[in-house]
Amino acid sequence: MTLEQGVTAAIETFRIADAAHIPFVLAMGMTMWCAYEGRIPESRILDLVGKFRNGGIKRYYFAGSLGMEDPRHVSSLFRQTLDRFPDVEVGFHVHNLSGNGPANIIAALDAGAMRALSEALVPLAGDPRLIAAWDFSIDQASDLARDLSAHQLHAKLHQMPTRAVTGANWDGRSQAWTEVPWQYGAIHFHSDDMADCGWSPDLTLRIPEDWRSGF
User: Fold this and answer.
1) Quick one: CA dihedral 170, 172, 175, 176, positive or negative?
2) Backbone φ/ψ region at 119: left (φ over 0), alpha (ψ -120 to 50), beta
3) For 95-136, what is each residue's pLDDT tens digit?
4) Is 49 exposed, middle or buried (0-12, 13-18, 19+ CB in 10 A)?
5) How far apart are CA 111 and CA 150, in angstroms?
6) Are 185 and 146 in contact (CB under 8 A)?
7) What is the pLDDT of residues 176-196, one digit of tens each?
8) Is 76 exposed, middle or buried (0-12, 13-18, 19+ CB in 10 A)?
């Protein structure tokens, strides 16, 4: 079986499982190092993931290559995969032949953590290290920014900044923030945003009741 035939077979298998509502995870072996070829370039794996993703597959396991990969390579592959395909999930099958297993796990987790931190954050409210965590996807029609931490340091927004802006976790499924508000958790602040400035009036004018329209 050629590589292209394997890609086609994997996509066909996924479609059969998906039609039967069976969860499907694609395991990809030798994603980082090969005994015959040495180091596997990230571009080759990204190209394959792109083909699988176009076929509808969103869940993967990257299999370590007998533990011969190194943390820098692991971090690079996971980070590039998650950056290029933000809607996929990637697991890691680890070996420890070279003694790098624990470090490789940390490298893979670090790549995923960086992505998670850039998305809408749902922190542990009881974490004593958490000072505040404002979730802009809540109460988007108001001037209040909700703090999810235990301190409840809710913020009030002034001068009507633009709310319900697509966040880092927006996947394109909807163009309406009311349908998936958790994906519209960003705010844009502009220098010309203006509402009530709170200025004291310099003068007041009571309109006479007998004035005609068009004055």
Assistant:
1) negative
2) beta
3) 887 788 888 888 888 777 555 544 534 566 666 667 888 889
4) buried
5) 28
6) no
7) 999 989 889 899 999 888 887
8) middle
